[in-house]
Specification:
Layout (H helix, E strand, L loop, with lengths): L2 E2 L3 E6 L18 E3 L2 E5 L9 E9 L4 E9 L18 E7 L10 E6 L2 E5 L8 E8 L2 E9 L9 E11 L5 E5 L14 E5 L6 E9 L11 E6 L6 E5 L5 E7 L1 E6 L4 E4 L2 E4 L6 E6 L2 E2 L5 E2 L20 H18 L3 E8 L2 E9 L15 E2 L4 H14 L9 H4 L16 H5 L24 H15 L3 H10 L13 H6 L4 E2 L2 E2 L15 E2 L1 H12 L6 H7 L4 E2 L12 E3 L4 E5 L2 E9 L4 E7 L4 E7 L5 H13 L6
Parallel strand pairs: 1-3, 2-5, 2-14, 15-24
Antiparallel strand pairs: 3-5, 4-13, 5-6, 6-11, 7-8, 7-12, 8-9, 10-11, 12-13, 12-14, 15-18, 16-17, 16-19, 19-22, 20-21, 22-23, 25-26, 25-36, 27-30, 28-29, 31-32, 32-33, 33-34, 34-35, 35-36
Helix pairs in contact: 2-6
Length: 635
């Protein structure tokens, strides 16, 4: 019996096993694979503190995978189900990329934290997975049985990873995985690779190097993909080490190797790697053909921003230009889907959807497809708060504590000074997320979603109504708005787009409760009606609009690149000073959805863009130049 550090495992044929946590019926000479990459938390102090490994087999007739884990852990920590979280106790995670498509496919995560089981991704239940464990005073043994939806074939490969979470009595925490890297649900190259082989398969080793010096940037995780030229179902993809070297054990045969193109993030912008040359080689008993160093370079960014904003002289030719630009961004940055609306002379002059809801299923985006609006929820909620203030239902300058105490902040007496105005202008002293005070209320700007959630609870307390009823009564119904959904429903599930990270569907789900900092789902044309409500100054008193659309606290996001122009928070919305007059705007970022809207008040011109991708920010951050202000020359 041997152990290996490689993130490539070989599943061998075995008969069906008894799923009872007892490993005595497993073959004794199977290879053990170490679970040892401490990606989060502290490195284990010793093998007694933590040591983990697994072995893996398969049954063709049953289309089943069998995994046996052995974990040494001198301190077992399990919490009760009502306080069960992934990071406060010992736990296990199993990841499977069953479709194993090179273009990306959904990864399923099965998790057990203490006695709390969860499944995320392609499946939503444990219907195809069984697990049994045997806990001892020195650790535990665990058996997994996974029924695949597709037949198992000798020679095929599959993306798989196993994670063990070690929580100790001294409160130290470690998240250890077999494959390198975190965020495995959205990054298939961070999984390990399992190859299904016969007992007598001969294994060789492939070695090579990747040169990233041409990137002229900080180190980027680079992966290599090696594919068997005689069996398209056998391929592995793994991250190279920090020096650019890679070493992979593979069955003897003929292969091709490449660094696949990918999107990387540097200095708040995304960039695309150019694909390397595809190199073919043979791996035999005595080694393999020479493999030249794989040279990695960046693809040049698209030069497509016009010198003059397209909305100024908008016509049919402009519409074609818009389509060309949107699709160029989609192609270069792997943005699956886009919803766009353009405003000129105070009305919607163009609306179009592009691409797909899901990069795997390829279901197209249409005018009914709803996207996560993320933080664009905030100005929608702010409008409602201002409506209530106009009728003296809420006082913007009265401490929220007097309406509803925030018990979890009781150890911070200064929180009792927080007002609705502080929330709307982002001066609460709260972090974006988290139950703590990091500044004195009113002291300085600090963007906070947590503050908006506190204000939501206050509004519900004051009115005695559910927040979605309030939204409908104060904003949606009076202004004839539509396609604004805030929490999970059957109707929303039928039209919602999937989010994407790295061009892979995230399957993160729809919020079960409405969150006023993040949960709105909408699309560009529908949301344009809200933007026009503001532009036409409907629904609020004139003095309230003056306060709504005035800078109360300055903040200068880097991407505007206008250090001589003021920018900052109005009452729940942002205001920007430009050569074309003031704009009101807000962006949204839920990680797998990026969006932006901005209206130039004096010009009565603007844009609304929703994307279902982490890389959609490349489009949303350039939209002000594309549609209104034209290409800005960098200093």
């Amino acid at each position: 019996m041997v152990t290996t550090d490689d993130a490539i495992a070989y599943a061998i044929p075995i008969d069906a096993i008894n799923l009872d946590g007892d490993l005595s019926d497993w073959p004794k000479d199977m290879t053990l694979y170490k679970i040892q990459n401490a990606e989060l938390g502290e490195i284990p102090k010793s093998n007694e503190d933590f040591q983990g490994n697994f072995r893996i087999g398969y049954n063709v007739g049953q289309s089943e995978i069998y995994i046996a884990m052995e974990i040494s852990d001198e301190s077992l920590v399990i919490e009760s189900p009502d306080v069960s979280f992934w990071d406060n106790q010992d736990g296990l995670e199993l990841y499977i990329n069953e479709k194993s498509l090179k273009s990306g496919s959904p990864i399923t995560q099965y998790s057990e934290y203490g006695n709390d089981r969860n499944a995320y991704g392609a499946r939503t239940a444990w219907d195809k997975v069984e697990m049994a464990k045997n806990v001892t005073e020195n650790g535990k043994t665990v058996e997994w049985k996974v029924k695949l939806d597709k037949p198992i074939e000798e020679g095929m490969s599959l993306g798989v990873d196993l994670v063990a979470i070690d929580k100790d009595d001294d409160d130290t925490f470690t998240w250890l995985s077999w494959g390198k890297g975190t965020q495995k649900l959205t990054n298939p190259d961070r999984l390990g690779n399992v190859i299904f082989i016969a007992d007598n398969t001969e294994i060789g080793r492939v070695k090579g190097k990747v040169n990233t010096s041409n990137l002229q940037a900080k180190p980027i995780p680079i992966s290599v993909r090696v594919s068997n030229t005689e069996n398209e179902k056998m391929w592995v993809q793994t991250i190279v080490d920090s020096t650019g070297n890679f070493s992979l054990p593979l069955p003897l045969g003929n292969y091709q190797i490449e660094v696949p193109t990918k999107i990387v993030e540097l200095d708040y912008r995304f960039h695309k790697l150019a694909p390397t040359e595809l190199i073919t080689f043979a791996l035999g008993k005595d080694g393999h053909d020479p493999i030249p160093t794989l040279e990695v370079k960046m693809l040049p960014e698209p030069e497509i921003i016009p010198a003059k904003g397209l909305l100024h002289d908008f016509n049919n030719e402009s519409k074609e230009h818009v389509d060309e630009i949107i699709m160029a961004y989609q192609a270069h940055y792997n943005i699956p889907g886009v919803s766009l609306a353009l405003i000129k002379e105070g009305k919607v002059v163009y609306h179009k959807t592009y691409g797909v809801k899901n990069s795997v299923t390829k279901e197209p985006v249409d005018e009914k497809t709803l996207f996560e609006a993320a933080s664009i929820t905030k100005p929608v909620f702010a409008f409602v708060v201002l409506r209530l203030a106009d009728r003296n239902i809420i006082d913007l300058d009265k401490p929220l504590y007097e309406y509803l105490p925030f018990e979890q902040l009781a150890k911070y007496p200064e929180y009792k000074k927080i007002t609705a105005r502080h929330v709307l202008i982002h001066r609460t002293g709260l972090p974006n997320w988290g139950i703590e005070m990091i500044n004195e209320p009113g002291e300085k700007y600090g963007y906070s979603g947590e503050g908006f959630e506190y204000l939501k609870r206050v509004v519900v307390e004051i009115t005695g109504k559910p927040i979605e009823q309030i939204l409908n009564e104060e904003l949606i119904a009076p202004n004839g708005l539509y396609h604004m959904e805030f929490s999970d429903s059957e109707a929303l599930r039928e039209v919602v787009s999937d989010g994407h990270v790295g061009n892979h569907p995230t399957n993160w789900g729809i919020p079960q409760e409405a969150g006023m900092a993040f949960s709105m789902h909408t699309e560009a044309k529908a949301f344009a009606q809200y933007a026009l409500t503001i532009l036409e100054r409907k629904g609020l008193k004139p003095q309230t609009y003056s306060e709504f659309l005035k800078i109360h606290t300055e903040s200068n996001p880097e991407f505007w690149n206008y250090p001589d122009k003021a920018e900052g928070a109005g009452l729940g919305i942002f205001i920007r000073k430009t050569d074309f007059g003031d704009t009101f705007y807000h962006g949204g970022n839920n990680g797998d959805f990026k969006c932006q809207f901005e209206v130039y008040d004096k010009l009565k011109m603007g844009y609304i863009i929703y994307t279902n991708s982490d890389t959609g920010s490349e489009l949303t951050m350039d939209a002000w130049q594309i549609f209104v202000e034209g290409k800005k020359e960098e200093n």
